[in-house]
Amino acid sequence: MKFLVIVGDGMADYPMDQLEKRTVLQYADTPGFDRLASEGELGLARTIPDQLPPGSDTANLSVMGYDPLRYYTGRSPFEAASLGGELSPDDVSFRCNLVTLSPEGSYADKSMKDYCAGEISNEEAEILIEEVKKKLGNDEIEFFCGFNYRHLMVWHGAPEDWKLTPPHDISGKKIAEHLPGGSGSAKVRAMMERSFEILADHPVNRKRVEKGLNPANSIWIWGDGKKPLLPPFEEKYGLKGSVISAVDLVKGIGLFAGLKLIQVEGATGNIDTNYSGKAEAAVEALKKGDDFVYLHIEAPDECSHRFETENKIKAIEMIDSLVVRRIRADLEQEGIDHSILLITDHATPLSLGTHTRDPVPFAIYRSSNPINKPARTFDEDCAAKTGLFLGEGYLLMDRFIKQE
Ligand SMILES: [Zn+2]
Labelling 223: which of 31, 80, 142, 360 has CA 20 to 30 A away? Predict the structure, then answer.
């Protein structure tokens, strides 16, 4: 038996007037999803415990079978791992944003003008982070280039008591009261201050200012986290497997769980991602000896954050046709016995543009034991009506794999 988890990030939603009071999952044309729901188990799972933030980090940990209350140590360690930052137990990883500070006065007098530095491009960011690496990096403190304004720093043997502020929480405010606190903060403050000297007048930023764009004139250090100690997936479930995702966070969770990463050309994390390429890679991996594949698609979540209803519907329909239906057809044609868990990690309602902690629908289908509930569809409402509810979402993986 081969096991495949398909995660459509942020698919769950609320009913919307413009969709005739239906949710996106109800409105979209998804015969592949509905077939999984009508031939398998359908229910709701709570992927995010009340005590934790409703993020893709906590939610995907749950879906992968790890209790976030026990294993979640922050978001940055996962992203650092995906970008090549090896974390030892003494290390601390941090988010290192490129931000725009206001020009006036000394460093502490400045305000947080733009936490994402005018959505700086990858090309520009890469040049600036290289410069930061050269001038501020050393054996003890390493910088890793991520995407756009989101980068990472790893401090080997760092102190552990930090008081750091997310830059998006202080938009427009004076930074003085929000500069890093904790026993290692003097060093980090000095680096941030120095980064302004390095970046403010950099040619990349001069060009941005000429074009009327916000310059990425400082780094901002926040989001500290230590290495999460996840027991290997293979040990937990007896299955060898892989992760397919465009998102560093999900790749990092996979790495800490001991899963292989499969890179897919054209996997972007957006609506234009290579759906077919991901489906093909998943089937290939299962054919070539993997017992388990975790296939994650970010697009629906991105569309929700941008309030793009049409695109979210489109993304979900593409996951249905190019991923779910395609994979089933391929596996059936190859005569491979398979179980599929279809789920969304959390809801990202279009009306809010942000994640919520609502329980999410899931379906578990087994080719060896299909059931027959033809009226069922894969959506929030239908999943709630079956009465199957998992309060601890991380136990869903046990149900999926061990109760087979
Ligand atoms: Zn997510």
Answer: 360
- Does the pLDDT of residue 144 top 90, yes or no? yes
Domain boundaries, the chain: 2-72+230-402, 81-225
Fill in the DSSP letter of residue 395.
G
Give yes or no for residue 271 having a pLDDT over 90: no
68 CA from centroid of ligand 1 (Å): 14
Q: How far is the CA of 395 from the centre of ligand 1 (A)?
A: 18
**C-alpha to C-alpha distance for 308 and 343, rounded to whole angstroms:** 21
* Residue 269 Cα to ligand 1 middle (Å): 11
Task: Read off the amino acid at residue 331.
Answer: L
348 CA to centre of ligand 1 in angstroms: 8
Q: What is the pLDDT of residue 86?
A: 80
In this predicted structure, the answer to whether residue 268 has a pLDDT above a threshold of 80 is no
Average pLDDT, the chain: 95
Rounded CA-CA distance 130/117 in Å is 17
Distance 298 CA to ligand 1 centre (A): 7
Is residue 244 very low, low, confident or very high in pLDDT (cuts 50, 70, 90)? very high
Q: How far is the CA of 11 from the centre of ligand 1 (A)?
A: 9
- 180 versus 83: the higher-pLDDT residue is 180
Ligand 1 centre to CA of 248 (Å) is 12
What is the distance in A from the centroid of ligand 1 to the CA of 173? 28
Q: Is 89 exposed, middle or buried (0-12, 13-18, 19+ CB in 10 A)?
A: exposed
Strand positions, DSSP E, 140-207: 141-147, 150-155, 162-163, 181-182
User: pLDDT tens, 40-61?
Assistant: 999 999 999 999 989 999 999 9
Q: What percent of the chain has pLDDT over 90?
A: 90
Amino acid (1-letter code) at residue 84: G
pLDDT at 404 over 70: no
User: Residue 197 C-alpha to ligand 1 middle, in angstroms?
Assistant: 36
How many angstroms does the Cα of residue 55 sit away from the middle of ligand 1? Answer: 6
* 198-201 contact pairs (CB < 8 A, 24+): 198/131, 198/132, 198/135, 198/136, 199/98, 199/128, 199/131, 199/132, 200/103
pTM here is 0.89
Q: Kindly give the distance from the C-alpha atom of residue 88 to the centroid of ligand 1, in angstroms, as a whole number.
A: 27
